[in-house]
């Protein structure tokens, strides 16, 4: 039960942080590219690399690890919004943005996890 509560708290915190960061990015100006979701997903990949590495190295309580990774990072990042925005780009005929968004999200996401691991080793 404690794990579920901590995951819940981490997820809520991550969701609020995603909302705040996304809103601040979109306030910079309208664009055809979903920069807000792109930024939170890449940052979330870096964070999960850091959290997994640090919590493994310092042998932190598993409940805290779950709160940070499944909760915070899970609430912060969003695959469903990424998928919906990709579909909207495709439906709008913005093919270069569609392909750029998908390819760069996957490649930079993986590189982000690698960077997070490297930064915390």
UniProtKB/TrEMBL annotation:
Main location as per UniProt: membrane
Stretches that traverse the bilayer: 34-54, 66-83, 98-118
CC per GO annotation: plasma membrane
Regulation: Na(+) is not transported, but it plays an essential structural role and its presence is essential for fluoride channel function.
Bilayer topology: Multi-pass membrane protein
GO biological process: cellular detoxification of fluoride
Swiss-Prot/TrEMBL catalytic activity: fluoride(in) = fluoride(out)
Subcellular location: Cell membrane
Binding-site residues, Na(+): 74, 77
One GO MF term: metal ion binding
Keywords, alphabetical: Cell inner membrane, Cell membrane, Ion channel, Ion transport, Membrane, Metal-binding, Sodium, Transmembrane, Transmembrane helix, Transport
Protein task: Fluoride-specific ion channel. Important for reducing fluoride concentration in the cell, thus reducing its toxicity.
Family: Belongs to the fluoride channel Fluc/FEX (TC 1.A.43) family.
HAMAP family referenced in this protein's UniProt entry, alphabetically: FluC
UniProt protein name: Fluoride-specific ion channel FluC
Organism: Phocaeicola dorei CL03T12C01
């Amino acid at each position: 039960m404690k794990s579920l509560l901590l995951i819940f708290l981490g997820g809520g915190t991550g969701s609020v942080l995603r909302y705040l960061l996304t809103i601040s990015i979109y306030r910079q100006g309208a664009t055809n590219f979903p920069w807000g979701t792109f930024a939170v997903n890449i940052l979330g990949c870096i964070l999960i690399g850091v959290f997994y590495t640090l919590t493994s190295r310092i042998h932190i309580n598993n409940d805290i690890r779950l709160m940070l990774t499944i909760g915070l990072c899970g609430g912060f990042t969003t695959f469903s919004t990424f998928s919906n925005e990709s579909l909207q780009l495709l439906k709008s005929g913005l093919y270069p943005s569609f392909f750029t968004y998908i390819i760069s999200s996957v490649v930079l996401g993986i590189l982000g996890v690698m960077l997070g691991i490297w930064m915390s080793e």
